[in-house]
Amino acid sequence: MSELFEPLLRSYDEKRRSELVAAYLAVEHAAEPVPEVRFPALREPALRRTLEAMLGLSGRTLVRPAPKTWISGYRDDVAAALAADPACVPPVEERAVLALVLIHSVAIPRATGLLAEDSWRSTHPTPLEELRRRSQLPVGELEAALRRLRAAGLVAQVRADGEETGGYVPGPQFHRLTDAARRRLQEELILAAGPDSPLAAAIRARRRNRVHDPHAPDPRTSDPQVHDQQAHDTVQPQGETR
Q1: Is the pLDDT of residue 192 over 70?
Q2: At what angle do helices 14-29 and 45-56 cross, to 10 degrees?
Q3: Residue 116 has pLDDT above 80, yes or no
Q4: Residue 165 — very low, low, confident or very high, per pLDDT cuts 50/70/90?
C-alpha cells in the first residue's frame, strides 16, 4: 500500500501519512458511513483531497451519505464500466428480489409519507411473506437469492418495532452510491412504483431526449434537491408490483 500511495504521501510527515492511511482503510472497509470527527483526514479539506486522490488510484471516490459522514464508492465512470460487464451483473433473480425490497421498504413508504428522509435507511422492512406473494420465484430460489444479497451487503434482515418477524431493507452497500448513482436508482424506483405518475412520464421523455441528443444538459444536475422533492411528492404506490 505504501508504494502505491508514495507519490501522494511523500510531502507529508509521518503523522499525516498515518492519518491519511487510517482514513483510507476506514472508508474502504467500514459497513456504515464514518463520522468525520474521528479522522483528521476526513475533517480537513486539504487532507480530504489527498484521500480522494488515493481512492482514485483504484477507481474509487469519497461519498457523503449524510452531513459530516463519509464512505467510499466506485466513481460513476467505473461503475458504468462494471455494469456493462456481464460478469459483474447479478443474476436476474437477485435483481428482481432486490427491486422488490427497494420498492416495498423505501419507494412505497416514502411515497405515502412514512419515510421523510431521503436516504436508503428504512424502518419499514419488507416481510418475507410479502416477497413470496409478490415474486414468481419458487420459495427455495427466493430464499437463496436473499442469502446471496445479504452476503453482498445489498439487503439486510431486521426486526420491525413491535414485530417478531421483521423483514428486509436495503443493505449497507447503498451508502456507497454517489449522488448521480442515487438519482439514477431513484428514477428506476419511480418507474417501478409509480409507472403512470407524471414524474415517471417526465423521466421517460428525458431519457428519450438524451438518446437523440446525448450532449443535452440533464436538468437534474442544476438542482438535484428539486428533483428529489418532486420524486417524494409525485410518486403514488401501485396496487401490484410486477
Answers
A1: yes
A2: 60
A3: no
A4: low
Q: Is 59 left (phi over 0), alpha (psi -120 to 50) or beta?
A: left
DSSP 117: S
Name the residue with higher pLDDT: 34 or 207: 34
Q: What pLDDT, on the 0 to 100 scale, is given for residue 196?
A: 85
Per-residue pLDDT, averaged over 67-92, amounts to 94
Q: Which of 78, 71, 120 is nearest to 98 (CA)?
A: 120
**Cell, residue 28:** 474502504
Which is it for the CA torsion 230, 232, 238, 242, positive or negative?
Answer: positive
* Residues recorded for the chain: 242
pLDDT at 53: 97
Yes or no: say if 179 and 118 are a contact pair by the CB < 8 Å rule: no
Cα–Cα dist 105/128, whole Å: 12
The number of beta carbons lying within 10 Å of the beta carbon of residue 183 is 17
Rounded alpha-carbon distances, angstroms, from residue 124 to 127, 176, 193, 234 = 9, 21, 16, 20
**Close Cβ partners of 19 (under 8 Å, ≥ 6 residues apart):** 39, 40, 41, 47
- Residue 226 reports pLDDT greater than 80: no
CB 161 within 8 A of CB 114: no
CA distance 172 to 95: 16
Q: Taking phi first (over 0 means left), then psi (-120 to 50 degrees means alpha), and beta for anything else, what does residue 199 get? A: alpha
Question: How far is 106 from 123, CA to CA, in rounded Å?
Answer: 9
